[in-house]
């Protein structure tokens, strides 16, 4: 969901996890001139066609081929628990974005999948506090952003499995604790 805390959570996790890097879907938006406009004049940014998804997949696969040379900082992360010590040979890539699980070529790559949710009113309130380039036009949230969120969320619920849904109204610390705990359990399994 837009403004659900995806980037904040990813950045906090990166500071806590060893050998961790982030790829953000926001870095793969097409230029405004290449984004379609609907009959109401809304730029259709909340659809897969607004993104260079093949380039994103390529970037992820390149990282997977050679994570050690990807620029990942290997210094000791902050607040690392004892369970994560001695994980020099494990590299973690966090991919964050809003349309990740609806793009089939990505679905074979995930070890863990998290989906942040927000109720309509909270999402609209948070969205209204952000400044976008180009700026949201009047009615854009209700006319495009929210309907696309519901569409893709419904697709995910119908087709997706192994997705952990997270309540985006919880505090950043609660969300961080939940995901961090889950990842440390996954890393323990990998080491065994």
UniProtKB/TrEMBL annotation:
GO molecular function: ATP binding; metal ion binding; nicotinate riboside kinase activity; ribosylnicotinamide kinase activity
UniProt keyword annotations, A-Z: ATP-binding, Kinase, Magnesium, Metal-binding, Nucleotide-binding, Pyridine nucleotide biosynthesis, Transferase
Pfam families: AAA_18 (PF13238)
Listed GO CC annotations: cytosol
Pathway in which this enzyme or protein is active: Cofactor biosynthesis; NAD(+) biosynthesis
Protein's UniProt name: NRK1 kinase
GO biological process, one term: NAD+ metabolic process
Source species, domain of life: Eukaryota
Reaction catalysis annotation: beta-nicotinamide D-riboside + ATP = beta-nicotinamide D-ribonucleotide + ADP + H(+); beta-D-ribosylnicotinate + ATP = nicotinate beta-D-ribonucleotide + ADP + H(+)
Family label: Belongs to the uridine kinase family. NRK subfamily.
